[in-house]
């Protein structure tokens, strides 16, 4: 009877609570599994933010280390993904801010022989684009500001609710939905332009 | 067909993708799209735009993924052992404090009892009580000095060889 009850409670236990407990206990086996499980999604999210694959890969590692440091803050009552993405987001913003400051400083100093990093906004998307339509969408995604790309990704690929996206972005739901509408309109315009041209 | 109905259709179409719409609105939208080729084309375009996001699958590098996993796992283990050391330290401190207070009270009463049995002046047993606490620490503090004098160890030179 006890075994049945235990099995039932184990089965009923929410995944997010299991993650929260593993993080608090520093259960390296379980943590290793979730790192592997979320790696692809976290990498994609950070690529959408930074537009640079190498930076995104560095930030994935930093994100997990920060997750470990702040494990006490996650109690498992809400889904894990929004919390994970909000940590990744903060790191990506800090990183972009530092990069912008460095670029600005280099431009101001106008040092001979030192060029600011070349814009590389389309490369990860162009790298994945196979067809003409995909290239048009890649260009549109590259032209979008990261906050719009982020909103589109979280809504349509991560399937997060508007409330969860608002939690990640630290913005009101109305702001988040308007970002999604705007991003979607830009993608439609990119595809529509191609269709018309064809 | 009034212009407003096309605007309403586009608005509902976006809302259906972003936040969902009611069943009535869904019926209205389907009916409108069935009659209006322009809005049907727009609906198709919106669906394609959303599907298009799936084209940009970011293929993870398995070696990089494994490296991150190993780094995070070893960091988790480091943190767990560090936290367990801190926990042991707190437990040890708690036990030490408890023993200090209870030990002091027991020793005080025991020495007072013995002193009254042997008719010793209170000053004597109080000095013994003070010595009971101070002497071990004093001897421990002298230990490095003894080692240096009798064993000839030189802590300064030891520090420099590292």
List the helices and strands and how they pair.
The complex is a heterodimer of chains A (198) and B (162).
Chain A: H1 2-12, H2 15-25, H3 28-50, H4 53-69, H5 80-109, H6 123-128, H7 132-143, H8 146-157, H9 162-169, H10 173-197
Chain B: H1 3-18, H2 23-35, H3 37-52, H4 62-117, H5 122-150, H6 155-161
Overview of this protein structure:
The complex is a heterodimer of chains A (198) and B (162). Chain A is mostly helical and 198 residues long. Helices cover 78% and strands 0% of the residues of chain A. Chain A is built from ten helices and no strands. Chain A has helices spanning 2-12, 15-25, 28-50, 53-69, 80-109, 123-128, 132-143, 146-157, 162-169, 173-197. The longest helix of chain A is centred in the middle third of the chain and has 30 residues, at 80-109. Residues 4-9 and 111-122 of chain A have low confidence and may be disordered. Chain B is mainly α. In chain B, 85% of the residues lie in helices and 0% in strands. Chain B contains six helices and no strands. Chain B is elongated. Mean pLDDT of chain B is 85; it is low at 157-162. The interface between A and B is large, with 48 and 34 residues.
Largest sheet of chain B: none
Which band does the percent of strand residues of chain B land in? under 5%
The major β-sheet of chain A equals: none
Number of discrete helical segments of chain B = 6
Helix content of chain B: over 70%
Shape of chain A: globular
The chain pair with the largest interface is:
A-B, 48 and 34 residues
Any low-confidence stretches of chain A, pLDDT <50, length ≥5?
A: 4-9, 111-122
Along the chain, the helix and strand elements of chain A come as HHHHHHHHHH
What is the first-to-last residue Cα distance of chain A? 68 Å
Strand pairing plus helix content of chain A: what structural class?
A: mainly alpha
Task: Please state the CA-atom Rg of chain A, rounded to the nearest Å.
Answer: 20 Å
Helical fraction of chain A equals over 70%
- The number of distinct β-strands of chain B equals 0
By DSSP (H or I, 4+ residues per run), the number of helices of chain A equals 10
User: From the alpha-carbon coordinates, what is the Rg of chain B to the nearest angstrom?
Assistant: 41 Å
Query: Which residues of chain B sit in consecutive blocks of at least 5 with pLDDT less than 50?
Result: 157-162
- Structural class of the secondary structure composition of chain B? mainly alpha
Please write the string of helix (H) and strand (E) elements of chain B: HHHHHH
């Amino acid at each position: 009877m006890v075994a049945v009850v235990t099995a039932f409670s184990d089965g009923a236990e929410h995944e997010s609570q299991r993650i929260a407990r593993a993080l608090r206990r520093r259960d390296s086996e379980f943590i290793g599994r979730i790192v592997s499980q979320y790696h692809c999604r976290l990498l994609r999210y950070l690529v959408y933010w930074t537009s640079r694959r190498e930076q995104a890969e560095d930030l994935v590692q930093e994100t997990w280390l920060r997750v470990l440091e702040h494990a006490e803050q996650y109690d498992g009552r809400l889904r894990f993904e929004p919390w994970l993405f909000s940590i990744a987001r903060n790191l990506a913003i800090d990183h972009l801010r530092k990069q912008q400051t460095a670029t600005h400083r280099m431009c101001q100093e106008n040092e001979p022989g030192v060029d600011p990093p070349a814009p590389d906004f389309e490369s990860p998307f162009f790298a994945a684009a196979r067809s003409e339509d995909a290239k048009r969408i890649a260009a549109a995604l590259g032209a979008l500001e990261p906050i719009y790309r982020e909103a589109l990704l979280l809504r349509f690929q991560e399937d997060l609710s508007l409330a969860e996206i608002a939690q990640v972005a630290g913005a009101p739901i109305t702001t988040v939905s308007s970002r999604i509408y705007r991003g979607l309109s830009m993608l439609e315009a990119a595809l529509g332009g191609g269709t018309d041209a064809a | 067909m009034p212009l407003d109905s096309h605007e309403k259709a586009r608005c509902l179409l976006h809302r259906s993708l972003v936040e969902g719409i009611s069943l009535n609105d869904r019926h209205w939208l389907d009916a409108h799209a069935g009659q209006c080729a322009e809005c049907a084309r727009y609906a198709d375009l919106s669906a394609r735009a959303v599907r298009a996001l799936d084209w940009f699958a970011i293929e993870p590098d398995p070696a990089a993924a494994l490296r991150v996993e190993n780094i995070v796992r070893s960091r988790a283990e480091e943190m767990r052992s560090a936290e367990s050391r801190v926990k042991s330290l707190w437990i040890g401190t708690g036990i030490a404090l408890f023993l200090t207070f209870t030990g002091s009270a027991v020793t005080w009463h025991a020495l007072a009892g013995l002193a009254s049995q042997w008719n010793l002046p209170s000053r004597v047993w109080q000095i013994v009580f003070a010595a009971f606490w101070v002497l071990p620490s004093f001897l421990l503090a002298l230990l490095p000095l003894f080692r240096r004098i009798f064993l000839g160890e030189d802590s300064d030179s030891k520090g420099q060889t590292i």
